[in-house]
Amino acid sequence: MTRLFGVLSMALLISTPVLAHHGWGGQEEQVTSLTGTVVQGVSLAGPHATMKIKVGNDVWDLTLAPPARAERAGLKEGLIPVGATVMVRGNRNLDHARHEMKTIYIRQGANEYHVYPDRE
Amino acid sequence: MALAHVLTWLEHSPLGVFTRSLGVWSYGVLNLVHILGITLLFGSILLLDVRLLGAWRQIPLAQISRPTTTMAQIGFVLALCSGIPMITVKSSDYIGNPFLLIKFPAIALALLNVWLVHRSPAWQAHRVRALMPAEQRRLAFGASLSLLFWLTAISAGRMIGYW
């Protein structure tokens, strides 16, 4: 039995680094700025809030904070309308084939949303 | 692909609309219930399977099988009832996610295995008498499959969010 638990604990330890995601591990270190047009407004549903913007011909998936934190940053569903021009800053996915960015900051006109102020 | 249609339909289903309307903590709370369900399910199953594989032979099997199967059933219902609304929140996000194609078949195989074990003569017999070596081997085989399928389902499920 003791040996069995040893084996199970080892398996857990080995698998822990894989679980280190959901943070910023899959994102680039450097901050990227994008300016684009909103094609899908802020959604506060799911494990994290999201929105989509079009930059040139590419549609970017913007991953925001968990819904409660995004809401505390002032984001509400329907607040930034589809078609609005926004400037966003964040860390894009290491895989450049995926147009995905974890978003730190959003500006629409005079409105600023500090999603991750500690990362600005 | 047909699965993509199902996922898109799920997202726009009344349940999806309702779940999304529950506020910013809804996903977190559903996720919490899902994890509690899985810990109950797998914790109980692990105890039973390890016993079937030969550990703690001094404890009569029937004394372990009753509480563990009851708890596993409660855990499964909790995981199911939280998992269904959770997947409807943004089902279209999972289109093309390979872990989904591992998780759900693994759950189906795990449930099939539960059904086969429970209708086996060895399982029927364990409640009323000590088992013959051949019957013990039958149940140990079922326990190995159980661990394989449930661990696969849980691992693939956990990895869905990391794809």
Descriptive overview:
The complex is a heterodimer of chains A (120) and B (163). Chain A has helices at residues 2-15, 67-72, and strands spanning 32-43, 50-55, 58-63, 85-92, 100-108, 111-114. By secondary structure, chain A is an alpha+beta fold. Chain A has a single domain (26-119), classed as OB fold (Dihydrolipoamide Acetyltransferase, E2P) (Beta Barrel), CATH 2.40.50. In chain A, a hairpin with a 2-residue loop joins strand 5 and strand 6 (111-114). Chain A starts with a helix and ends in a 6-residue tail after the last strand. By secondary structure, chain B is an all-alpha fold. Chain B has one domain. Chain B has helices at 2-12, 14-20, 26-52, 61-89, 98-118, 121-126, 133-160. Chain B is elongated. The model of chain B has no long low-confidence stretch (mean pLDDT 95). The A-B interface holds A 1, 4, 18-19, 21-22, 43-47, 50, 66-68, 70-71 and B 19-20, 24-28, 31, 50, 55-56, 89-90, 93, 158-159, 161-162.
Lay out the secondary structure:
The complex is a heterodimer of chains A (120) and B (163).
Chain A: H1 2-15, E1 32-43, E2 50-55, E3 58-63, H2 67-72, E4 85-92, E5 100-108, E6 111-114
Parallel strand pairs in A: 3-5
Antiparallel strand pairs in A: 1-2, 1-4, 2-3, 4-5, 5-6
Chain B: H1 2-12, H2 14-20, H3 26-52, H4 61-89, H5 98-118, H6 121-126, H7 133-160
Helix pairs in contact in B: 2-4, 3-4, 3-7, 5-7
Give the strand order of the largest sheet of chain A, numbering strands 1, 2, ... along the chain.
1-2-3-5-4
Proportion of residues in β-strands of chain A: 35-45%
Q: Main sheet of chain B?
A: none
CATH class of chain A: Mainly Beta
- Mean pLDDT over all positions of chain B: 95
The number of domains of chain A is 1
Tally of individual helices of chain B = 7
Helical content of chain A (DSSP H or I, runs of 4+): 10-25%
Q: What is the gyration radius of chain B calculated from CA atoms?
A: 18 Å
Shape category of chain B: elongated
Q: Determine the mean pLDDT of chain A.
A: 87
Identify the most extensive interface between protein chains. Answer: A-B, 17 and 18 residues
Report low-confidence residues of chain A grouped into runs of 5 or more.
16-21
**Count of runs of 4 or more consecutive helical residues of chain A:** 2
